[in-house]
Design a protein that fits this description.
- By secondary structure, this protein is α/β, with parallel strands linked by helices.
- Helix content is 33%, strand content 16%.
- It contains 11 helices and 13 strands.
- Strand 4, helix 2 and strand 5 form a beta-alpha-beta unit.
- The model has no long low-confidence stretch (mean pLDDT 95).
- Bound molecules: ligand FNR.
């Protein structure tokens, strides 16, 4: 877990990754990054993390998850993101920025013209919230691909080591990948190659403008809609030139039928999906979900089941997680709240304020 590893030629000092986690309340008006926001990342870089993936950063004003989401749709945001990047680099962490468009999950307060790969109407019931969207025209689809490419170039100008395309959790890229959502009848829908085309063309486009040394990662679900299909999607990303995969959950965040995990596997189905995707590609894979203790993370690396392990909520609770793990000091535990308090404000996180037992 404390051994160095490379992503292509980018040296990462250990195997622990801070996964992207939105911190909406830190952003000031018009996308200005507050000192508190910079400090949030710097604290965790100082805490010893090898790779920091900056939270979902919107590529287009009309695809936001919240009004005050981090953004890279204009050159004026470059200097803002660079504050976070510099603060993390100062402590030896490498930095990748997650770039994002919410598609049909865009909040109506940021756009009333909500778009998705194809027309979408969802009944409002216990599981679904009644989302609806119109289909993107082919011109709009290409414009959105360019938005991702432009945002990646801005991330490079901000000093970041790379970008991660947010292709998980049912946002725009995940919507293109999912046969449940993507009903397009042109070359961006239908078979798997067509469904991955939106993303693979973005990867190629980013590579063209940023060069070979800029890291391009893809976050993706291992249930898009099943593990077998997700493995094929991962191979397409690798073929297109992705340097790194980060395996999480797909469009269906609460699948009624979970992938089968062998009894001897010690972690949940999301982590299992990551390890299985890793067995089928030749680029580094980050696994994530429910990994809380240094023992769990170390086990995955020692058993050669992952290249990197992302520790999310536990690093929100205790920014010193990595340094403390190295010194075998007690770590403040994440209390696994049903809805993580950090979605509102970290100030009310009960783990953060607890004394270590
Ligand atoms: C998240 N997650 C998330 N994922 C993502 O791809 N982009 C994002 O911006 C966010 N934002 C976010 C905010 C907060 C407050 C939480 C708790 C989670 C999901 C996150 O990256 C991770 O996949 C999950 O938290 C599961 O990992 P842990 O927490 O079990 O280690």
């Amino acid at each position: 877990m404390f051994s160095k590893n490379n992503i292509k030629n980018l040296k990462i000092k250990n195997r622990i990754v801070l996964p992207p986690m939105v911190i909406f309340n830190y952003l000031e008006e018009d996308g200005f990054v507050s000192a508190e926001h910079v400090n949030h990342y710097e604290e965790r870089a100082r805490g010893g993390i090898g790779l920091i993936i900056v939270e979902a950063t919107c590529v287009n004003a009309n695809g936001r998850l919240a009004g005050n989401q981090l953004r890279l749709w204009s050159d004026k945001h470059i200097v803002e993101i660079s504050k976070i990047v510099k603060a993390c680099h100062n402590h030896g962490a490498k930095v990748i920025v997650q770039i994002h468009h919410a598609g049909l999950k865009t909040v109506p307060s940021s756009s009333t013209d909500i778009v998705a790969p194809s027309i979408y109407e969802e009944k409002s019931n216990q599981k679904n919230s009644g989302l609806s969207a119109r289909s993107l025209t082919i011109t709009e689809l290409h414009e959105l691909q360019n938005d991702f490419v432009d945002a990646a170039l801005r991330a490079k100008k901000a000093g970041a080591d790379g970008v991660e395309l947010h292709g998980a959790h049912g946002y725009l890229i995940s919507q293109f990948l999912s046969p449940l959502i993507n009903k397009r009848e042109d070359s961006y829908g239908g078979n798997l190659i067509n469904r991955t085309r939106f993303t693979t063309e973005i990867i190629t486009g980013i590579r063209e403008v940023t060069g070979k040394d800029f890291m391009i990662g893809c976050r993706m679900g291992c249930n898009e809609p099943d593990l077998k299909t997700s493995i094929e999607i991962a191979k397409e990303f690798e073929k297109a030139g992705a340097d790194l995969l980060h395996v999480s959950i797909g469009f269906d965040m609460t699948p009624s039928e979970l992938p089968v995990v062998p009894e001897e596997f010690k972690h949940n189905w999301v982590v299992y999906g990551g390890t299985e995707i890793r067995r089928n590609v030749n680029i580094p894979v980050i696994v994530v979900n429910g990994i809380k203790t240094p023992e769990q993370a170390s086990d995955l690396i020692k058993n050669d089941q992952a290249d990197f392990v992302a520790v999310g909520r536990s690093l929100l609770v205790d920014p010193e997680w990595v340094n403390k793990a190295q010194q075998t000091l007690p770590i403040k535990p994440c209390l696994n709240c049903k809805i993580c308090q950090w979605f509102k404000t970290g100030k009310s996180c009960p783990g953060k304020t607890s004394s270590i037992s």
